[in-house]
Amino acid sequence: MKNTLNTAKEKMQKTIDALSREFAAVRAGRANPEVLNKIQAEYWGAMTPVTQMASVSVTEARTLLIQPYDASALKAIEKAILMSDIGINPTNDGKSLRLVFPQLTEERRKELCKGIKKYGEEAKVSVRSVRRDIMDKFKTMKKNSEITEDDMKQGEKDLQKIVDKFCDQIDSMVADKEKEILSI
User: Fold this and answer.
1) What's the pTM value of the predicted model, to 2 decimals?
2) Which residues pair with 100 in a beta bridge?
3) Buried-most residue among 4, 55, 79, 87 (CB within 10 A)?
4) Residue 105 CB partners (closer than 8 Å, separation 6+)
5) Cα distance from N-terminal residue to C-terminal residue, the chain
6) How far apart are CA 32 and CA 88, in angstroms?
7) What is the pLDDT of residue 165?
8) Residues paired with 42 in a beta bridge
9) What's the mean per-residue pLDDT of the chain?
10) In Å, how far are 50, 84, 104 from 90, measured between CA atoms?
C-alpha cells in the first residue's frame, strides 16, 4: 500500500513539474528563452527545436538574441517563429534574430491570467485522475483480500491528504504566476 501511495506522489509530482514548464513558457513582458522551447524549425529535412539550432540569450530586459550555429538555418528559424503562437515578429539582421517583447497591455495581462488559471485547473484534474486510479487500485486490492477494509479506509485518507497537498501547491503556483504577470 505504501508503494501505491509513493507511485501516486511520483505521478502528481510529474504534474507539478509539467505545470512549472508551462508557466516558464508563458511570456510575461520580459524576455525569457523558455518561450522558444516548443518551437521547431525544419533543418536538413527534420524538425529540430530552435534551442538546439541556435544560441539564445537575453541581451536586454525585453530582447532575446537568437544566433544560429549554422547561418543557413536563419531563414528556417525565422519562419518557425513567425508561424508559432508567441505573437512576436523577429528582426533579422542577416546573422541573427532579435525578438523584442512588447510591454504587456492590461487586456493581455488578463488573458495571460486566464490561461494560467486554465493550466492550473488542468493540473488539478490530472492530480484527481491519479487519485481516482489509486482508489480503484485500493478497491481491487480489497476485493482480492490483499488489504482489509480498515487498511483501505486509511489508504483513502492518506491519499486525500496527498491530493490536498498537491492541489494547494498548484493553487500557490497559479497565484504566484498571476502576481508576477500583474505586477510587471
Assistant:
1) 0.70
2) 63
3) 4
4) none
5) 46
6) 13
7) 96
8) 47
9) 89
10) 13, 11, 17
Cell 539564445 found at: 56
Task: Name residue 155's amino acid.
Answer: G
Residues in the chain: 184
Q: How far apart are CA 6 and CA 2, in angstroms?
A: 6
Q: Which three cell numbers stand for residue 88?
A: 512576436
- What sign has the CA pseudo-torsion 43, 56, 23, 85? negative
* Predicted local distance difference test score (pLDDT) of residue 27: 63
**Residue 149 burial class via C-beta count within 10 angstroms: exposed 0-12, middle 13-18, buried 19 and up:** exposed
pLDDT at residue 36, rounded to an integer: 84
For the segment 97-141, what is each residue's pLDDT rounded down to a tens digit? 998 887 778 887 888 899 899 999 999 999 999 999 999 999 999
